[in-house]
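lol ok so funny story. i was supposed to be doing the assay writeup but got distracted and ended up predicting the structure for this chain instead. priorities right. anyway since i did it might as well share w the group, maybe its usefull for someone
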Amino acid sequence: MKYSSSCYLTILFLSIIHSFNHTTMAQTNRKAFINGKIYTVNEKQPYAEMVMTEGNKITYVGKTKLNIIDAQTSVYDLEGKLMLPGFNDSHLHFISGGSYLLGINLRPALSKENFVSILQDYIQGKEDRWITGGRWDHEMWPDKTLPTKELIDPISENTPVFVSRIDGHVGLANSKALEIAGINKNTPDPDGGLIERNPETGEPTGILKDNAMDLIFKIIPLLSLQESVEATLRALEETKKFGITSIQDMTQPGELEAYKQLMDNGELTCRIYSIWPIDKYEDIVRGGITAGNENELINRGALKGYADGSLGASTAWFFDSYIQYPYSTGLPMDVITNGKLEKWSLDADRNRLQLCIHAIGDRANSTILDLYESIKNNNSPWDRRFRIEHAQHIRTEDIERFGKLGVIASVQPYHCIDDGVWAEKRIGYERTKTTHPYRSLLNNGSVVAFGTDWPVAPLNPLYGIYAAVTRRTVDEQNPNGWIPAEKISVEDAIKCYTLNAAYSSFEEKVKGSIETGKLADFVILSEDILSIDPVKIKDVEVEMTVFNGEIIYSADRY
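and the output, tada:
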């Protein structure tokens, strides 16, 4: 280990300096991180050389001060490496992600033949159970048409299969699954859903979109508590190695029990903002929970609703028709058309619960902005912090409304460089001009929070920062960036993944920046993403993750 001259003097003075491969030297839980480039995300003090912690709180941020380091302090030499606040993923599906890692992975399939081969290998020995998961993406195949049940029936005659597309808004069922669910040519499309049918016979092809997927989901056995715990533990392994110390989870019924069990066992190594389905809001109201009034490892107070589907499924709701499907403008959810979302939202807001509504198409975004404006005009004022999840395709006049109404754009930058490969053929060039408009949203005063939608997109926050800063699509066909005017700075991207994300869950006073009195959650990176070529950001690795004042991950080489 090489030391700078200032660090060498520190060693002589204290004789206790050690690097990442330290031996425990202190009985107290006091740590000093020195000799680093510490980007605090605190506008009043953007950079520091040293951070001290005691327990799970930050006690000092600033220049190196030898007189506050004593023999009871564990000292870590960062060797000039970049320290940031711990990353906060503002939108993911945590147990689904863990289950995805434990189950079938169809994302690597690059053709229909490859898709069938991976599925066939996975089914062997599991013929007596439901096969679910997947995350396939037909846009990566030479033949970009959707798969059908006929493709997989020969390898799954007696095994029910229902595997989802990468966006989670399209699923493929085999004939066995359709039979168990009672789906046939006479089954009507549910509100907010679509059963794709063979145009000649009227028989289901096996493709189900949005609410039609519920016809299958409701008969698939739920995970047991132990299975949910195992999936959560697997997911936590990923958050550690990617420097993620907080997540905002789209929690499904039953999943909260797994998180609580791990918290009680001392095994929960990230903070969870648990966002519940909006149709369950009365359960939270009865529990006396309101947004922003908890300060635990697991917090609640937010609700997730849906306005539309996804662009990949061609169910995102637009004002104008799809280019590929001129008969369709997308698919508004049934709770939009029957008025339930408006009713639930008004009542939930009166009870001080945060609204986080999924909207992807421009009409869906505009409709939810209208809803939020109505709520703001009709309900009593409070620090409500409306959110729109995804906010992908927005008309210019509606971009301005985000700022005026104080609506948080909870976005996933990796979707931008993924969808950018094929979005134009879905909606045309003009509408793509205001797709994923991060720079415009920030310029109009909106708070932008970054997440991944994992397992829809990779969990690594550095991929998201890379995507927002470069906008280079995954096919490498846009070296200057897809819609380059919407690129943002690395500093802004870091803030979106830390302080802005904390604000979106009412927690900016306790985390999101490196400041005295805040929680001791940090990440140390292998390279300085503030100074390297932005194209290289995706290759940077996490050296260390600190959560609650404890080192929970350290790279193997230390």
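Residues 74 and 418 are 43 Å apart (CA to CA). The longest helix spans residues 225-241.
back to the writeup now i swear
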